[in-house]
Specification:
Blueprint lengths: L12 H4 L2 H14 L9 H11 L5 H15 L3 H14 L1 H11 L3
């Protein structure tokens, strides 16, 4: 680390890392280890807010999707992937992918 960034009167590294980044990283690690969850990144939050128009925080989006996924018969991880693909690649292809992943 650069000498000018540490020492008395300088911010600690913890102040440089936002809580949002830590939360996203934690959720992403949970997904990598198999948890049926989502990471409330900009794509996920934008989709939920544009679709349902609720004033939800990142944690609110996470809670809502973790409750809605099982009720809809889909894995929350698949919802995360589909929303991300919709944002990156287009809605038509992603909707077909989500329909194929529906639980029996």
């Amino acid at each position: 680390m650069h000498a000018g960034l540490v020492g008395p009167g300088r911010p600690t590294i913890a102040r440089w890392v936002s809580a949002d980044l830590v939360s996203l990283g934690y959720q992403y690690l949970r997904m990598l280890f198999g948890a049926d969850t989502t990471k409330p990144d900009v794509h996920i939050c934008r989709f939920v807010c544009n679709t349902l128009n609720p004033p939800l925080s990142d944690v609110g989006v996470l809670d809502m999707l973790e409750q809605a996924g099982p009720l809809a018969g889909v894995k929350v991880r698949d919802v995360d992937t589909t929303i991300w693909e919709m944002s990156a690649r287009g809605a038509r292809r992603s909707r077909a992918t989500l329909d194929q992943r529906r639980a029996p």
